[in-house]
Amino acid sequence: MQTIVDSVEAEETGRDEGDSGDVTAAPDDMSTLKVMIIDDSKTIRRTAESLLKKEGCQVVTATDGFEALAKIADEKPDIIFVDIMMPRLDGYQTCALIKNNQVFKHTPVVMLSSKDGLFDRARGRIVGSDQYLTKPFTREELLGAIREHVGRSD
């Protein structure tokens, strides 16, 4: 299974490993989508941003929850991917603040974590997350989350 980091490394070296036709089944209007990536890892931010821009998305990044909250009101992302373990304001707190805001409560939030425990997944659901992806996630998982949550009616 090819991870998002592998995809970007392949792109940078000119290799095209693991591309399959069904992966591009993302929405046709991906260029109109604004995706926010909140992660304290520069590698995760950079690789996700590169992949999503290649798919035509507009990408906004933040290094932690405080920076993200300052950008969300201005940028109005269509979907937010947030790392759980971050300094200052962790992913759970960030998600809870987003979901408790009347303007952004319907914005899909996908938790990102290297932990795959039942407790972590449950805690993510409690604060209102729409999905939970375990790092390292694949290109298919990232695009699948966007397809599943963006444009659906609540």
For the record, the count of structural domains works out to: 1
Structural class: alpha/beta
CATH topology: Rossmann fold
Strand content: 15-25%
Helix/strand order, N-terminal first:
HEHEHEHEHEH
Helix content range of the residues, please? 40-55%
Average pLDDT, all residues: 84
- Describe the largest sheet: 5 strands, parallel
Number of helices: 6
CATH C-level name: Alpha Beta
The CATH homologous superfamily name equals Response regulator
CATH A-level architecture: 3-Layer(aba) Sandwich
Q: Give the termini distance in whole angstroms.
A: 32 Å
Quick one: how many beta strands?
5
Shape summary: globular
Gyration radius, rounded = 15 Å
Strand order across the biggest sheet? 2-1-3-4-5
Uncertain segments: 2-27
Describe, in plain words, how this protein is organized in 3D.
There is one protein chain. This protein is an alpha/beta fold and about 150 residues long. The protein has a single domain (about 30-135), classed as Rossmann fold (3-Layer(aba) Sandwich). Helix content is about 40%, strand content about 15%. The chain has 6 helices and 5 strands; from the N terminus they run H-E-H-E-H-E-H-E-H-E-H. The protein has a 5-stranded parallel sheet, with helices on both faces. Helix 2 links the parallel strand 1 (about 35-40) and strand 2 (about 60). The longest helix is centred in the N-terminal third of the chain and has 13 residues, at about 40-55. Mean pLDDT is about 85; it is low at about 1-25.
